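Kindly review these tokens for lecture notes.

. . .
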Amino acid sequence: MNKNKCRELRGNRSQSDIANFLGITQQQYSNIENSQKPPKIEMCIKLSKVFNKPINYIFPDIFLE
């Protein structure tokens, strides 16, 4: 299972807060955060902007060779 840093970067904000900003449901965001479903590149870009971190920092396993 791939791990990501979304939970860590979310801090005190709720999953619903982040989901609303991204324009998705809380359940969809939860699936991303819990590595249930890999996000599409467009969502990775949005999360990069939300958390002000590079995509490969948030999702380090995506760029494994």
